[in-house]
Every structure is written in C-alpha cells, then in structure tokens.
Amino acid sequence: MIDLKELLDDRSTPPPDLAQHLRLGALRGRITLRRRRRAGVVGTFAAVAALLVAGYAAIPARQAGPADTATSDRALAEFGRHLDGTRIVAAAVSEPGNPTVRLRWTPTTLDIRLFVRCRTGSVSGVSALVEVDGDGIMSGGCGHSFGARLANERMWAETGLQVGRPAVFSLHGHGESLGQDPDGADRFAPAPWDAVYGLAIGVRLATEAYPMPSPPSRLWPLDLDPGEYGRQTANPDPAVRWLHSDPADPLRPVSTTIVWRGRYDLVMQSVTPGTLRVSVNGVEVDGADWWDYGAAVKTWQWEPGEPRNWARIPGFSRPQQGETVTVTVTPEVVTGPWQAVIRPAA
User: Do 25 and 138 touch, CB atoms closer than 8 A?
Assistant: First the structure.
C-alpha cells in the first residue's frame, strides 16, 4: 500500500533543498493492494525521483494539441465511468506494440486521482512510468491508483498542475524489472508485444454522490494471516499492535500505543465501503478509503524516525525517539468489520 514517509513529503510546501525530491511520486512511495475477484497484474508504484536519476530514459511529452483528449468507449470499458470514489473524466488505452498513452486534459479541479492498468499474456510482469507535462511522478508495477486522500489539491499543485490550464498526462510502458546494472541504475525489459496500457483521470466525488455497489449476500471475511503479522498463538510478537472493529459498533474509534522509533508497516482492511482515518497523538496523519466490498488489504510503510516528513504535517508535533505515542483509527461510513495492524518493519 503506501510509504507514509514519502506520503507526508507532499502534504505541505517542501524546504528548498528538497524541492526536487518532493515530487508527487513520493506521495505513495510503496503501496500494496490486494483485491479479490479482479484479474490483471497488481504491482507497486514507487517514487520516481531516484529511478529517473538512476538512468530511466523518460520520453518527453509531445506538444499539447488544441483540444482535450476524447475518451473512447474502449477506455471506458477498461476503467468504467466510476472508480474508487471518482468519476472518470479522461481515459485512454494503448494499442499493442505502442506502449505510450497520452491524455490532454484541462483540470476543473485538483481533487483528482490517476489510474493505471496494464495487461499482457506473454510475460509475468509489466511496469509503467507516468508523467505530467514531461515530469515523472510515479513508476512501477501496474494496477493501482495514485492520489492523496489528505491535502490532495495541494499535492497536485506542487507538480505545477493548475485549474483551467491544459496539461498532458503520459504513460510510458515497459516490461518487467531486470534489476540494476553495476552503476545502480534500474533496468527494464522492453514492453511486451501484446501489452496493453491504460491511463485514466478521476475526479473525486462526495461519498453520497458516488454510486456504491449493492452489498453481497455474504461479506468477505477479514483474512489477514495472524502468523504473517506476528500474532502466532504460541509466541505472539509483543511489538505488533492489532486493532479490530467493535462487533457491536463498527464506527467506534480504536486506539493503541507504539514506541516512536524505527520503521513500521501499517496494514488495513475493511470488508465494506468506508474510510479509516489514522491519527497520531490526536492529529490525523493518514487513512484509506474503500469503495466496494472486495475486502482490499492496503499497506503503508511508516518511518517515524525521519524528521523532515512528520514535522511538515500542520498541527503535528513530532515526538522524540523512544517516546510512546497513541495511534487511533477512526472509521467513517463503514458498516461491517475492519482491522488494522501496526508492526515493526523488517
């Protein structure tokens, strides 16, 4: 799911010496998303600043034309008219043999999300680089969306995106990762001949305006593996915090404490649509949304020891290393079970 260290990089104006680092791609540095009953390749978006420095040959954006890109029925068939809390306003899908997709869109709002899709039958993995007006903002495996839940408009404004000014959104597809060369540069295989890449822009809708799916006859169970998350019955890990919804009231907030140090994974799952807001010492720092009954598992990486990220959250005072802090998960709209795990990362 998401690197909280990098997520917080884009929530306020960066210091001058970090301006190059704090691109939009840093917002959702490492996202893991597991969905049921959905075919396709699911991967991880990583911040592209380091990847670009490492030698990825980005393709410059073409000169924007006079009109916004028309969205085809084929693209809407790939993404749908509504997706993950948004209304799709622009979408395009590549042709086999051409791994580049471009959308020219004039923003009417900056409260948007990008969606990437990649499909191929010839190799095990494909990846993509996404740019806005020629600047890389994210790169990695396909199958995710990209856009902050908090401070979304400020985040996009930091990329230079402006309401009323046309922008070119580009996707450049390539094949699976081949590791790194001796100089540390990332290498990728060429895009497979049969790969199809898609890019879409969604404008966020209010919860009450989004066409929620009908609930299934039976909800998907909460299915995080206790052994995987340090909750073995015989020898539980005392550093792992496991938060569950109240069976009698799934909207009741649940709190725990952690020691402010090192690096953590934050793993969350909800079996119904809704939001889980996460706060540290009473200040909201993160959260996740669910818009269906697929019981997606979403994972963030927290690095509380990195001062430049946490200190930039308005109203948040960064604790000292070793200090015990209170983490609270506040659910909204959910109507069924949810859970959250905070565990020290390897």
Answer: yes
Alpha carbon distance 166, 316 (integer Å): 35
What is the C-alpha to C-alpha distance for residues 28 and 251, in angstroms, rounded to an integer? 26
The sign of the CA dihedral 289, 331, 149, 212 is positive
Quick count: other Cβ atoms within 10 Å of Cβ 268? 24
Query: In terms of DSSP bridges, do strands 82-83 and 135-141 run parallel, antiparallel, or are they unpaired?
Result: unpaired
What is the tens place of the pLDDT at every residue in 74-123? 899 889 999 999 999 999 999 877 889 999 999 999 999 999 988 887 66
Over the range 117-149, which residues count as b (16 or more CB within 10 Å of their CB) and which as e?
Answer: bbbbeeeebbbbbbbbbebbbbbbbbbbbbbbb
Phi, psi (deg, nearest 5) at residue 152: -65, -45
Neighbouring-strand partners of residue 16: none
